[in-house]
Write a structure and sequence with these properties.
The protein is of the alpha/beta class. The protein has helices at about 10-20, 35-40, 55-60, 80-90, 110-125, 140-150, 170-180, 185, 200-210, 225-230, 235-255, 265-270, 275-290, and strands spanning about 1-5, 25-30, 45-50, 65-70, 95-100, 130-135, 140, 155, 165-170, 190-195, 215-220.
Amino acid sequence: MILVTSANGNQGSRLVPKLLAAGHRVRACVRTEASADRLRALGVTEAMVGDLADRSVIARAMEGVRSVYHIGPTLHPAERAIGFAMVDAARAAGGGHFVFSSVLHAITTDLIQHEIKRDIEEHLLSSGLEFTILQPANYMMPHRLKSVFEEGVFRLSWSLDRHQSMVDLEDVTDVAAMVLGEPERHAAATYELVGPGRFTAHDIGGVLSRVIGREVAVERIDAAAFTRARMGDADPELLAHTLKLAGAISARYSSHDFLGNPNVLAWLLGREPTGFEAFARREFQAFRAGRGQS
């Protein structure tokens, strides 16, 4: 049995079908019954609903599993404590293979979400568990392109002139499925997962212009205003936490490039990782197909 946390999120929703297709039994841990129903329909062995901030939920989730894929709950104020508790529960349950979805350059501690993951990495390294750590670059996010395809504007909440590396979530979850399927081969490994190329916002706009066939404008937005508008009437504690994260991201990415190398990912996949233009073309085709366009 493989336990996957945040199993209906950006990674989990792509990883779980790959694990099922490979014949693995999957226990999926999610926050809502709606997410659980979706995963049950895919054929997961067990869909658990609960908040991982509750240690009793973690203890139940860990029962009888041989491998864990822990994706920290996005924006959760207790992400660090949850990560520590997951590692401790895995050790108490008798070990197994613990795979942690971290982030590229977790040592960059002026990024709050990186510092949290760095601390969890250290806790895992000190646990005595068999482990693998995956460190993906910024995701190429399909939902961010939908508004570009509709409006012809690419928006970013940090400097439009700084370079970033990116990675396709399909490539990340291909690697995650491989690692979970071959724990002996990947034990004690830490892998940076980075796609090819380095891009400013202007570079991204140029690629999207070619893909769509019309000019895409590039626009910087205010991180705090965007976060407040997106989160609406969110819990004040969660809003404050998210605003702090967004401010740290904007400040760091406006003063430094965020880059990695694709060699490790290419080696793991046995092929060239997906480039941003190939990703954008794939997503644009899906967008057009969803609209019934040829």
